[in-house]
Amino acid sequence: MFPIIDKRETGINIRKIMDRQGLTAKDVQQYLELGCVQSVYRWFDGVSMPTVDNLYALSELFKMPMDCIVCGNRQSSYFHCVEQYNESQIRRISKYYKMLKNNQIA
């Protein structure tokens, strides 16, 4: 079977990853330097997909392979990617990200 990306499931997955890492749509918009936050909301709804460049950048932001972000009809070798961090790690990473965003770390 030819692999196909499911835009809606991918959007749901992006939202779930962001929620677990304490990131908002505005955080992602600013990180990717998007013109408006609506692009991120369109991903959530499955109306559109991030470009390959944006997926690559999201994989860096989320600290996980692109395969963990994109959902489709093939089983990923990274099936439990989102669950790879425990809650204390997620809180620590989120706090560090917010400090970086506010230029509090040299």
Structural write-up:
By secondary structure, the protein is an all-alpha fold. 58% of the residues lie in helices and 0% in strands. It is built from six helices and no strands. It has helices at residues 7-21, 25-32, 38-45, 52-62, 66-69, 87-101. α1 (7-21) packs across α3. The longest helix has 15 residues, at 7-21. It is globular, with a radius of gyration of 14 Å. The termini are far apart.
Residue runs with pLDDT of under 50 for 5 or more positions: none
- The helical percent reads 55-70%
Main sheet summary: none
The total beta strand count reads 0
**CA distance, first residue to last residue:** 49 Å
Number of helices: 6
What is Rg? 14 Å
Shape: globular
**H/E element order:** HHHHHH
Q: Helix/strand-derived class?
A: mainly alpha
